[in-house]
Design a protein that fits this description.
There is one protein chain. The protein is of the alpha+beta class and 498 residues long. It has 3 domains: 122 residues, no CATH class; 67 residues, no CATH class; 274 residues, Fido-like domain (Fic-like fold, Orthogonal Bundle). The chain is 50% helix and 8% strand. The protein has 19 helices and 11 strands. A 6-stranded mixed sheet has the order 6-7-5-4-9-8, with helices on one face. It has a 3-stranded antiparallel sheet with strand order 1-3-2, with helices on one face. The chain has a two-stranded antiparallel sheet with strand order 10-11. Strand 10 and strand 11 form a beta hairpin. The longest helix is centred in the middle third of the chain and has 34 residues. The termini are far apart. The C terminus is likely disordered.
């Protein structure tokens, strides 16, 4: 018999038409179709039924129960809970098992103002209705509950305020006022209104449960997704790492290293000079006439990095973190008025496809992220955590990469450990590892990359700047990544740091 499965749609339904019904029965008997559930068949007879249902779930529900509504927590999550439950509202209550999914159908009003069509025959509660539904009492806990937890609801309200400001959540509250009485949800409307007022701090007596909502209430809202990311990095860094003592503690050697630290930190951000040009700027203390702002970037960076006493300054609390960050940024970018030296950003910034932390969330996110920093004890771990946190928050309009590397090396200086240089040849490895942590929440490449940069940096030793430069040249440090060169760690010097 010819295989007809590739000619048939993935999902077929039984029909009142006797001819169609007989044909489906014959295909099932002949092995062309497989029954998934009452009145539902599939032509993908060799595939996992649960996977087929998940792919076609909303279309199946809409076809079997026209006018049904995805409601309560499912109207926010758009997928079954971890126990496989999807919550719906219809003309009568029932529990309907499908492969991999249980439809928990509750009796209630059908679609109303603000509800939307999700698939043919299927609707979903609009935002206002979904909030009211989720503030109903639920007798079952966890994933079996038809409602989200109160902290989850608070977090969703806080996110709307964060993204759409007060006008956004007030519009949803106004929409809820229109539909509450017809739906019989006046009590839930009262709860919803009190939650909004509490988060906006217009009702300070109402207690909140969500950390993000509480933070906004007290004027320190933060980016919860970034805190999850910081927690991931913290867990990976919460371990001892190798010591790499600084062999450049003598003042001249310290300052020579600081010169190259400043040179590469600016070069990686696009402030490109020949090494001899940068040396001339530092030795004379004067900018190049044709490149005044770029020269001041070099001077400002070097001024901070070469200050052995100042580089031992690290924050012991969030307020000190803000002060140190703003002070170092002001010195580094003093000539760039458009970058607002020393002031946190007043508008959002991005790089490529990465949107950094919202300007209103900078302080709160740094405060929350600082908790992990305080609980790390290894100098290398603290240093690269601080670097990533500052880089990821991007608290300033410009200069974030440079200030994040200064903050990183300050932790190492305080612990008498080798500072980290990111040489030009290592730029793509550096940027790629940071992006992988940001986009994929995978800290392993970032830690390996930083550790290799640290090992390399530990080989750059001595009070003679020319010899230090020669060491860097033999390591390919000044080469561009697209030249095909790789960072070399020269064994003749490398043994000093092992």
């Amino acid at each position: 018999m010819a295989d007809l499965s590739h000619l048939l749609p993935e999902i077929l339904y039984s029909s009142k038409d006797s001819g169609t019904s007989k044909q489906i029965s014959k295909w099932v008997k002949d092995g062309v179709l497989k029954k998934l559930a009452p009145r539902v068949y599939t032509s993908r007879i060799n595939e996992d039924p649960e996977a087929i249902v998940r792919r076609n779930l909303f279309n199946i529900i809409g076809h079997l129960y026209p006018g049904i509504l995805v409601s309560h927590r499912s109207a926010f999550e758009f997928e079954p809970t971890r126990t496989g439950k999807l919550f719906l509202t219809y003309s009568h209550s029932r529990k309907i098992p499908l492969p991999g999914v249980i439809l928990e159908v509750m009796e209630g009003p059908g679609p109303t103002t603000g509800d939307n069509q999700l698939a043919p025959g299927l609707f979903v509660s609009g935002q206002a209705r979904a909030y009211l539904e989720n503030l109903q009492l639920s007798r079952k806990p966890g994933a079996d509950s038809k409602t989200l937890t109160l902290p989850e609801i608070e977090e969703r309200i806080e996110k709307i305020i964060r993204i759409r400001e007060e006008a956004g959540i007030n519009q949803i509250r106004d929409d809820a006022k229109i539909i509450a009485k017809p739906l019989g949800m006046d009590a839930e409307l009262g709860k919803f209104s009190k939650l909004i007022s509490a988060i906006l701090n217009t009702n300070p007596l109402h207690k909140l449960s969500s950390p993000t909502a509480i933070a906004r209430k007290f004027g320190k809202p933060y980016d919860p997704a970034r805190i999850v990311l910081f927690n991931t990095l913290f867990k990976a860094l919460n371990q001892p790492f190798k010591n790499r003592p600084d062999h450049n503690l003598e003042l001249k050697a310290f300052r020579n290293f600081a010169f190259f630290e400043s040179y590469f930190s600016n070069y990686i951000e696009g402030t490109e000079f020949e090494v001899n040009e940068a040396k001339q700027i530092i030795s004379s203390g004067k900018p190049m006439p044709t490149r005044d702002d770029d020269s001041h970037d070099i001077l400002g960076s070097y001024k901070i990095m070469s200050d052995q006493h100042g580089m031992r300054l690290t924050p012991s609390n969030p307020d000190e973190l803000m002060q140190i960050l703003q002070y170092r940024h002001q010195i580094m970018l003093i000539s760039r008025e458009k970058a607002s030296p020393g002031q946190f950003k007043d508008k959002n910034n991005r790089a490529g496809t990465t949107d950094f932390v919202d300007s209103e969330l900078v302080r709160g996110t740094l405060i929350q992220g600082f908790n992990n920093y305080q609980n790390l004890h290894d100098p290398f771990a603290k240093a690269i955590y601080m670097h990533f946190m500052i880089s990821e928050v991007h608290p300033f309009l410009d200069g974030n990469g440079r200030v994040s590397r200064v903050m990183m090396n300050a932790d190492l200086v305080r612990a008498n450990q080798t500072r980290i240089i990111i040489p030009t040849v290592y730029r793509e490895d550096y940027i790629g590892a940071v992006k992988k942590l940001t986009k994929q929440q995978d800290p392993s490449a970032y830690i390996r990359m930083m550790d290799r940069a640290w090992l390399f940096s530990s080989t750059i030793i001595g009070p003679d700047m020319d010899k230090m430069q020669s060491q860097l040249e033999r390591s390919n440090a000044f080469m561009e990544p697209n030249d095909g060169a790789k960072l070399e760690i020269v064994e003749a010097v490398d043994h000093l740091s092992r």
